[in-house]
Design a protein that fits this description.
This protein is of the alpha/beta class and 224 residues long. It has helices spanning 35-48, 62-65, 80-103, 107-115, 185-193, 210-223, and strands spanning 5-9, 16-21, 26-29, 53-56, 76-79, 123-125, 128-132, 137-141, 153-156, 161-169, 199-204. It has one domain (5-223): Ribonuclease Z/Hydroxyacylglutathione hydrolase-like (Metallo-beta-lactamase, Chain A, 4-Layer Sandwich), CATH 3.60.15.10. The strands form 2 sheets. Strands 1-2-3-4-5-6 form a 6-stranded mixed beta sheet. Strands 7-8-9-10-11 form a 5-stranded mixed beta sheet, with helices on one face. Bound molecules: zinc ion.
Length: 224
C-alpha cells in the first residue's frame, strides 16, 4: 500500500492482515483464525522480509489471534484487556466458532480451530505505545471502547497508513457483537480520524480512505 507497508487479503471471512517492515524488524498485524492460516501468512511475510517479527493482536476475536503459534518465538503485543479476555474466554470463543463451522459443513475449519494453540500476549499496554522497528515507528493505540473494549489500531506515521482492526469494516457493516460498545464507537473513530490517515486498513475488506470511515462513524452514531 505504501513504502514497506502491506495488507494481505483473504477470501475466508473477507479478512485482511497487515505487515510493516522496518530496518531491523517487522510488525505482523493479526495472525488469522488457525495455525494453518497463520503459517500461510508467515510464509507470505517471509517472501517479503527475513527480519525478526513482532506480532500485534488487534482484539480477542478468534479470526485475529488463533494463527499466532506459527510466528513463535516472538513478542506478542495486545491491549491488557485483550489478554484478560483470552485468559477468561478463548476456549469458549473457540468452542462456539468450531460448532458454528460444523453447522455450516466446514468440518476442516472446525478441526483446524480446535487444534490451534492459544498464544497469550507477552506484552500489553492500555492507551498508547510506540514500537521501534528500526528507522521507523509503529504506534499502537487504543481509542476507547468500540468494536470491543480493547481494540488496538496501528498507525504507521511515515506512510500515514492506519491498521484499524475491526474498528472499521469494508464490504459489510461493522460487526456489533455482545462485547461491542456502539455508543462510544463513533468517538473512537473520531480519535482515529484525528490522526489524519491517508489509508485505513480494515480487519475485513479492502483498504479505505478517511471519508469512508467518517461515513461509517455517522452510521454508527445513528444506531446509538
Ligand atoms: Zn472482531
Amino acid at each position: 500500500m505504501a513504502d514497506r507497508t502491506y495488507a494481505r487479503r483473504y477470501t475466508e471471512l473477507d479478512q485482511t492482515l497487515g505487515l510493516v517492515v522496518g530496518d531491523e524488524r517487522c510488525l505482523v498485524i493479526d495472525t488469522g483464525s488457525d495455525e494453518a492460516f497463520g503459517a500461510e501468512f508467515a510464509a507470505a511475510v517471509r517472501e517479503i522480509t527475513d527480519l525478526p517479527w513482532t506480532v500485534v493482536i488487534t482484539h480477542a476475536h478468534f479470526d485475529h489471534f488463533f494463527g499466532t503459534a506459527a510466528f513463535l518465538p516472538c513478542p506478542v503485543w495486545a491491549h491488557t484487556r485483550c489478554r484478560d479476555v483470552l485468559v477468561e474466554s478463548a476456549e469458549q470463543i473457540r468452542g462456539a466458532w468450531a460448532e458454528r463451522y460444523r453447522r455450516e459443513g466446514e468440518d476442516d475449519l472446525a478441526l483446524l480451530l480446535e487444534a490451534a494453540q492459544l498464544v497469550l500476549p507477552t506484552e500489553v499496554f492500555t492507551h498508547r505505545t510506540e514500537l521501534d522497528l528500526g528507522g521507523r515507528a509503529a504506534v499502537l493505540l487504543h481509542p476507547g471502547p468500540a468494536h470491543t473494549d480493547h481494540d488496538v489500531a496501528v498507525h504507521v506515521r511515515d506512510t500515514n497508513v492506519l491498521f484499524a482492526g475491526d474498528l472499521v469494516e469494508q464490504g459489510a457493516p461493522p460487526s456489533i457483537g455482545s462485547d461491542a460498545h456502539p455508543a462510544t464507537w463513533p468517538d473512537a473513530l473520531d480519535l482515529l480520524l484525528q490522526l489524519g490517515p491517508d489509508t485505513i486498513v480494515p480487519g475485513h475488506g479492502d483498504p479505505v480512505d478517511a471519508e469512508f470511515v467518517s461515513r461509517q462513524r455517522d452510521e454508527l452514531r445513528e444506531l446509538s
